User: Fold N-acetylmuramoyl-L-alanine amidase from Aliiglaciecola litoralis.
Amino acid sequence: MTTKTIIKEHRLSGGGVKYKASPNHGGIFAAGVADTIVLHYTGGSSFDSSVEHLCSEKTKASAHLVIGREGQVTQLVPFDTIAWHAGASQWKGRSGMNQYSIGIELDNAGELTKNQAGMYSSWFNRTYAPEEVFRGTHRNRTHPSFWHIYTEQQIEKTFAICDLLCDTYGISEIVGHEEISPKHKVDPGPAFPLDKLRQCVEADRADNSADNIFELGADRVVTATKLNVRSGPSINFEAVSAPLLTGRKVKVIERHEEWSKIEFTQTGWVNSRFLR
Ligand SMILES: [Zn+2]
Assistant:
């Protein structure tokens, strides 16, 4: 029986999650700026070899988490610290997405080539049977090709962890490496249900904000660990203060869709989902 996974001091705790520190990381995130999750595949031959690789000083690469094919998880970098996973990248007017994101690597061999025997090969020459292969068109391309499937346990674990991260850190966007570096990257690729993940997290947010239709002038309490306060009602506006911490009392003075303008020592906009 596994216990529930929670986040404690910027680390996953419980549920069998392991921790192995990677030397490949930057400093602490600037206050409140990590508002995005970037998903990757390892393109490696095994969970353990990928963890080793991302902990080797030579690679200069890391991620916050690696999620394996049995749903096993190893964390390499705490969530308040910059990991090196996104490389040269751009998204919605920002570049160098390592500074703004939590990186999750999924153990997966990546794109496969069909051989004459009707089997499929990875770049490291392992052979895969047809039932381990997904045929689909990558969002950055026009023609279908072959991809190593993700397992159900792995997908389920990824959805659960993304949900937890969104709730804890007020993360508002989940993207694929292929979207923030479309010229060079194809991960996580079409075998991963990225759009469905976004819909699920979105639906969860809508559920939560349905409980949050409250009167203007009402006193509310911050439920997120760190809540970003922005200059306008969307994640595209910059933070106007250090993030508010759990339990902070605020007054709602204006609403716009799922966003609330709040008053504390100053004013700013927050996602209503993180107020109670
Ligand atoms: Zn990647």
Residues 40, 177, 185, 187 surround zinc ion (CB under 6 Å). The chain has two domains: 6-207, 219-274. The domain at 6-207 is CATH 3.40.80.10 (Lysozyme-like).
